[in-house]
């Protein structure tokens, strides 16, 4: 099975009328290409190196040739182009306009910005309630069933 076929999504269904359906699909990082040979396979690493994925990634990049890296970039571009074609074909079946990567990213950033504004506003409200009730903010979060990380 080719690299492209292994990484293309098998399920391309989207919800009708949902222009941001692509944002609801799970993220599949391209850097974790299955079956890709890495120079470190079969080698043991120390616990400090194994605990630091950034160091391991840098070491792997240093041991790979420019040609290998260019080939990987070309493979990723091919995969992304195929995914975009599949995505837009599914949108056309639902009579939705095609999307370009720049549009998808811009929409995602706009949604993320809106989410952050709402979250910040809610935090201001929780802080005011905490001040009025003279309680720690974490108690107010618990009172309203909100995780502190939310």
UniProtKB/TrEMBL annotation:
Protein name as catalogued: Swi5-domain-containing protein
Biological process annotations from GO: meiotic DNA recombinase assembly involved in reciprocal meiotic recombination; meiotic joint molecule formation
Any Gene Ontology CC annotation: Swi5-Swi2 complex
Domain of life per record: Eukaryota
Protein keywords: DNA damage, DNA repair
Lineage: Eukaryota, Fungi, Dikarya, Basidiomycota, Ustilaginomycotina
Organism: Sporisorium scitamineum
Chain intervals with Low complexity compositional bias: 40-56
PANTHER family registered for this protein in UniProt: DNA REPAIR PROTEIN SWI5 HOMOLOG
Pfam families: Swi5
Similarity-based family: Belongs to the SWI5/SAE3 family.
InterPro entries xref list: DNA-repair_Swi5
Region (Disordered): 1-59
